[in-house]
Design goal:
Elements lengths: L2 E7 L5 H14 L5 E5 L6 H5 L7 H13 L9 H12 L1 E2 L3 E5 L10 H14 L5 E5 L5 H4 L5 E10 L2 H16 L3 E10 L7 H9 L4 E4 L4 H8 L12 H5 L1 H17 L5
Parallel strand pairs: 1-5, 1-6, 2-4, 2-5, 6-7, 7-8
Antiparallel strand pairs: 3-4
Bound molecules: adenosine-5'-triphosphate and magnesium ion.
Magnesium ion binds next to helix 1.
């Protein structure tokens, strides 16, 4: 049984940081192998995880098309099979975490093939992983492009601003409009210095968002970033790591709930 988690939100709010740290915590909790999917074309989840990234799915797709064009495919091997094989071999294997980066789409504005591939990859690989965590690009596009389609839990990240929360509200509203199958969605307010202002609390309520966690601005994050140290190595007693506990607990209880009811993801 797989629990698929996706992270969305306005640009620069901390989606990749949160995705990476959650992956780190799930790995520490020995919750089973995790498939990390970097669905942001400007792939950088690998740096948070401290994993090398050689090839993206986009690169492989291009190479495979070129090979096909050049008739390099051996007779009898379907392009699709070769692609599946190459994608499987492009998974970067870490300890308890495997990473797949989607890379850039093939042409301006066209994500269709990339998205179909993402679905196919998740369907093919997900059974081997109890957890799939998808880091998305900023904004709302990934929803209409349907990379955030069948997810169990969506974390919508906002900074501590009314504008950020309003964007989070738009994302939540789109979930219904686009008929996505998102199990639960929660708001995470990141980099909140001194708690939430009454205005921000009102905006959260007006946008009908369920606030799961308020994460602090952690100076250690900037220290790690300055020297390119992977954020998964943040100590467990750092401000940000500690504040992630309720999220991790929610995820673990979500899975237990699914197991108890025998619900199947798909
Ligand atoms: N809680 C935090 N405390 C301190 N710095 C943070 C925190 N969360 C994120 N940052 C910093 O904010 C910047 C943006 O974070 P991140 O790259 O995770 O955002 P993002 O939402 O993934 O951005 P993008 O929209 O470009 O993908 C980074 O420099 C990151 O280190
Ligand atoms: Mg990011």
């Amino acid at each position: 049984m797989t629990t698929t988690i996706a992270i969305a939100g306005k640009g620069g709010t901390g989606k990749t940081t949160l995705a990476g740290l959650l992956i780190g915590r799930l790995a520490q909790a020995k919750a089973g192998p995790i498939l990390a999917i970097d669905a942001d074309p400007s792939s950088n989840l690998n740096t948070v995880l401290g994993l090398p990234l050689e090839k993206t799915v986009g690169d492989i797709r291009e190479e495979t098309s070129e090979k096909a064009r050049a008739n390099l495919l051996e007779a009898g091997i379907a392009k699709r099979d070769l692609l599946d094989y190459e994608i499987n071999s492009s998974v970067v294997e870490g300890v308890d975490v495997d990473l797949l980066a989607m890379g850039r789409p093939e042409g301006p504005g066209c994500y269709c093939a990339a998205n179909n591939m993402l679905r196919a990859i998740i369907d093919a690989l997900a059974d081997s992983y109890p957890w799939v965590v998808i880091d998305n690009e900023a904004g709302l596009e990934h929803l209409s492009r349907r990379t955030t389609r069948d997810v169990d839990v969506l974390f919508i990240v906002s900074d501590a601003t009314v504008r950020g929360v309003t964007t989070a509200g738009r994302i939540a509203a789109l979930l219904d409009e686009l008929n996505t199958k998102v199990g639960r969605h929660y708001l995470i307010v990141n980099r909140a210095g001194n708690g939430l202002s009454p205005e921000l609390e009102r905006a959260i309520e007006q946008n009908g968002l369920e606030l799961l966690a308020v994460l602090p601005d952690d100076p250690l994050v900037a220290e790690f970033d300055a020297v390119g140290r992977p954020l998964v190595q943040l100590p467990a007693d750092s401000a940000l790591s500690g504040a992630l506990e309720p999220l991790v607990a929610t995820l673990l209880s979500h899975t237990r709930g699914k197991e108890a009811t025998g619900a199947h993801h798909r």
